[in-house]
Target: non-specific serine/threonine protein kinase
Amino acid sequence: MTLKITWKTIMPGCYKTETPIAESRKKPVLKQGSFQRLSLSDLSNPGSPLSVDDISNSLIGSNLYTFTLAELREITHNFSPSNLLGEGGFGPVYKGFIDEKLRPKLKAQPVAVKLLDLDGLQGHREWLAEIIFLGQLRHPHLVKLIGYCCEDEHRLLIYEYMARGSLENQLFRRYSAALPWSARMKILFGAAKGLAFLHEGDKPVIYRDFKASNILLDPDYTAKLSDFGLAKDGPEGDETHVSTRIMGTHGYAAPEYIMTGHLTTMSDVYSFGVVLLEVISGKRSMDKTRPSREQNLVEWARPMLKDPRKLDRVIDSRLEGLFSTKGAQKAAELAYKCLSHQAKARPAMSDVVKILEPLQDFDDTVISPFVYVVPAEGEVGDESESEKDISHQEIKERDDGQQNRPAWRHRIKLPLSLVAYSESALYKKFRHELNTQTYQ
Ligand SMILES: Nc1ncnc2c1ncn2[C@@H]1O[C@H](COP(=O)(O)OP(=O)(O)OP(=O)(O)O)[C@@H](O)[C@H]1O
Ligand SMILES: [Mg+2]
Model:
């Protein structure tokens, strides 16, 4: 028996003026267990027939909740500016709190609610891609999508709350102590495992938007990838690549992808190399405020990565020497390989994970009584008002080719509350966690 999948079959709520609360309270819309992952392309043609099994084993096998707009208004204090966590190309993101009464099976927890800006550059397609991918892919290093809301033209996404916000916030914020080397290595390791999981599944996924702002951090610096709006299913059968419009963010996209539109998992590996370089250098991949030779981080730093004598010029001076020299050399070599112009010369993400694992130990690091400051749980991820509005230009082109204009992002930063940790205490904590972590 076959059944045609249409938007209406999958998301009946999108076709109602109001989603009845009684209906949306009915436990998860979809039951657990997914075998055959549903692709975005299966849905973009609403006429494409799929069997009932395909449906129940794919999107229906995910564990997403639907919410009404009224419920999301309530949990975010009517999308109050004081709940604003940040804003990207999709729209603003607000902190909310789900209590135990909202859904019987959903535990009380803070959440992040992302609201599609109806005048923005992104739209229904990105929202749907997020649901299709994150609704079906579950992994300790992918952010958990809890549910969504689709009412009239409104499109929202509800995620687990990541208390430290994005790597971009943590790495580049001014007026605060530098992110310690141990945390940097842990973040890279986690993000690499997330990317390896995407690349090496039965049906590989090309993430296409790997960058510091899409790596979210929980209180112990566990990294999780977010934003699957640009993700693509990898090539199938004998295909070597996916041909697609050039999308992504300036400074992160692989050169061959920009030149040809040919997308492979190796394009993500290049972007990983860019983030790796940002992490060890503490510098943004593109920065027009730097001297002209240094504005493009990869062009400036890559030639120095293989020369241990020059490496000091690349390593973040804010670390004040508190890093593993051996670890830094290995990380630099890895960045060099990931940033190779020849896509085939780049390592697979599973190899990147293997190379990063031993870098979690920093035996030759000077453990000094250095104290750094981390925000208290519950208040981390927000930053000081004085840092308001770090905006940077990026180019995102939509698959429908309608736009190629720059999007401006604005960040609102809120006050920090401070607690202190010593480097060695943090090291012990991380070491314990690393010993308990498994590759997935
Ligand atoms: N699950 C979450 N938990 C906590 N904060 C979040 C969460 N998701 C997003 N944020 C915050 O909201 C900000 C905006 O996120 P968003 O993904 O919309 O934009 P971006 O990644 O900065 O830009 P882009 O549109 O290019 O992806 C993030 O930088 C982060 O600070
Ligand atoms: Mg993002």
About this structure: The two ends are 35 Å apart (CA to CA).
